[in-house]
Amino acid sequence: MRLRVIHETVYHYSPSVQNAQHMAHLRPRTSMVQKVLKHSLQVEPTPIQCSAVEDVFGNTRAFFSLPFTHEQLRVRAESLLETLPAPAAPPGEPWEAVRERLGYRRGQPYHAATEFSFASPYIPRHADFVAYARASFAPGRPMMEAASHLMSRIHADFAYTANATDAGTPALESLRLRRGVCQDFAHVLIGCLRSLGLAARYVSGYLLTEPPPGQPRLVGADASHAWVSVWSPAADESNGIPDDDAWYDLDPTNDRAAGEDYVTLAIGRDFSDVSPLRGVIHGGDHHVLQVGVTVEPAPPSALAAEEPAPAISLTLPTAPESPG
User: Fold this and answer.
1) In the chain, where do the E strands start and end?
2) What per-residue confidence (pLDDT) applies to 166?
């Protein structure tokens, strides 16, 4: 499937911002089931400095600096991707055996998945998560069977309510409320898995959504999405999937596994690692935020691109004159 994603963020400041430093996770990842064909990042007003690096989780992270007065910031990321169906998750080992693989043993190699089994800024390991998860994790139950059952319970037990939480709501609060948005559903699923000693990653990205029958697709009407990647290695690698690649994506908001209609933007421990856009500003005590996301099948005119895109391509307007 070929998809085009446009993610535009606009801040209107009052009073003006005097200077600002920003960080963005807006370039989709490349993986076995996703290839980035084109990517551009447009920033207005033009940054004095702009760079991109790969972070510790393998995401592309862009930095830009605006050390001058401005009343508005516009950041537009546009990506063209090719996605493939994800391999079906095998049932996996009993979940207790997966947990044992992540335990510390002197002299034994450290598995990379272990870093996603610990607490993170928004997601503690807590007995309340264990209590909720226990109904899904019966002794000896295969890992992905148990994780999928837990996903379905969260989908059924939690109400999708847009204004019940915000970006900073801790996962334990979301568990107590039994309501929230995709970020909260993902945080709760991760909290349950990690509290049982298992490994789970937070995934930010997009989902292709179809308009109602007979209605046109509205530009900018989609939204960012979030789901969970669960580590479930096989007892051996006879299935051709190395342990390092034994991650399977579950979406508790929609009660399904991620497929080719999903676009992975970034992975991390929780939302704090992969916020699409954040920054530090001086001034601008009040602001109005506008975010528009469009995820659509790529138009025929875009299908000529076949080569993977470079790490980042910045399309910037002419630099403003120096203040003063």
Assistant:
1) 2-24, 34-44, 49-54, 60-66, 70-83, 159-160, 179-180, 200-207, 224-231, 247-251, 256-257, 262-268, 277-283, 286-297
2) 86
